[in-house]
Specification:
This protein has 131 residues and is mainly β. Helix content is 0%, strand content 68%. The chain contains no helices and seven strands. The two termini are 31 Å apart.
C-alpha cells in the first residue's frame, strides 16, 4: 500500500495544479517516498470538474541494490526523476465532497535494476474542496 496526500489549487474554470506526496505503509515496497506535481486541464463546464487530462512529473526515492559482495547484498536508496500523463474524471457533490478516478503512465529519465521503465499513475481519491 502506498497512500498519497494531495493538494490541488484550482487556477480557473478549466485548469488546476497540484502536488501528491506518498509514503509506503509496507516495508516490502521498494518506493521510499514520492512527490508528484501535476497540471490538469478540465473539459467540464462547472469549475474544475468532469473529464481531465493531466501532465505530471515525479521525484521518487527507491530502494535499489548498490552492489553485491561475496557474503551479502548492500542496498541503498536512489533518487529517480520522470514525467508522465494521465486522464481521469472528477465528481463533486453539492456539499463539495470530491471523488476522482484516473489512469496514466510516466517514464523515468534515469533507471535502476528494479525500476527500468517508469511508473503507473492510477488512483481513486476522495476529498473535500474548500472555497
Amino acid at each position: 500500500e502506498f497512500p498519497e496526500i494531495t493538494y490541488e489549487r484550482v487556477l480557473g474554470e478549466e485548469s488546476a495544479m497540484g502536488l501528491s506526496i506518498g509514503f509506503p505503509l509496507d516495508s516490502d515496497i521498494d518506493y521510499r517516498f514520492a512527490a508528484l506535481p501535476y497540471y490538469r486541464f478540465y473539459f467540464g463546464k462547472p469549475w474544475a470538474k468532469g473529464f481531465f487530462l493531466e501532465v505530471n512529473a515525479t521525484v521518487a526515492s527507491v530502494r535499489d541494490t548498490e552492489f553485491i559482495t561475496i557474503d551479502n547484498v548492500v542496498e541503498g536508496n536512489q533518487l529517480l526523476f520522470g514525467m508522465g500523463a494521465a486522464a481521469g474524471v472528477k465528481f463533486m457533490s453539492r456539499s463539495n465532497v470530491v471523488g476522482e478516478v484516473f489512469l496514466g503512465l510516466g517514464r523515468y529519465f534515469n533507471e535502476t535494476d528494479t525500476f527500468e521503465w517508469g511508473y503507473p499513475r492510477v488512483g481513486i481519491t476522495i476529498g473535500k474542496r474548500f472555497q
